[in-house]
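A sample follows:
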Amino acid sequence: MTADSNRTLGIPKAEFLRSVRETLGRSNVPPETRYHHLLETEADLEQRAAEVRHRLERDRPALLDRLAEMATKGGWNVHRAPGVEEALGHIEALAQRLDVTRVVRSGQEVFEQLPVDAALANHGMSITPIVRDETNTREALREEIRQADLGLTGTDYALAETGSLVILPRRGLSRLVSLYPPVHVAVVQPQEVLETLDDLFLLRRLEYYQRSREMGSYLN
């Protein structure tokens, strides 16, 4: 034991915090105003969201072009289909070209409009909706995903700014569908395209209020 053993190790808390404040150019006095986003009400967010949606509707053709450009730069293979039949035809042709035999898909609403199950089954492919019920346990569905050649999902949002897709947690959607199979096909609808991350964060803050402060456990 040394003569200094009774001294406190490290920097005292008060001195450490003072150093941080000085580095950031801040005083020891609390800020006069709170971070402005903390002051927003649900009504404020609804008004701003309406303005964002109006801008997105007005600029949609340019945003679709920008999304395709940025997604391609990010390594996506982008196909722009003018309608449901063309989108379905592209998925069929892609699956055939890749010699796909097993497909898993999410249980999202987009597949109520896009009848991929019957279309792919006509080509001899098995397609499994990843929806848990009394006959499909979590482990059984995970095994289906592990065996799949292709995973098919919709999206919640697509960001033109970054060329990236956003998928939110919900019943009938497993992250593994987009992550585990060697090929992921994402169906993006025009109304899901946002311009920036700021648009996304604004809409998510509004959803936080509208869903009784429940935002799910993750965001992909």
Remarks:
- Strands lie at 102-105, 126-129, 150-154, 157-159, 164-166, 183-187, 193-194.
- Residues 132 and 156 are 20 Å apart (CA to CA).
- The longest strand covers residues 150-154.
- The mean pLDDT is 87.
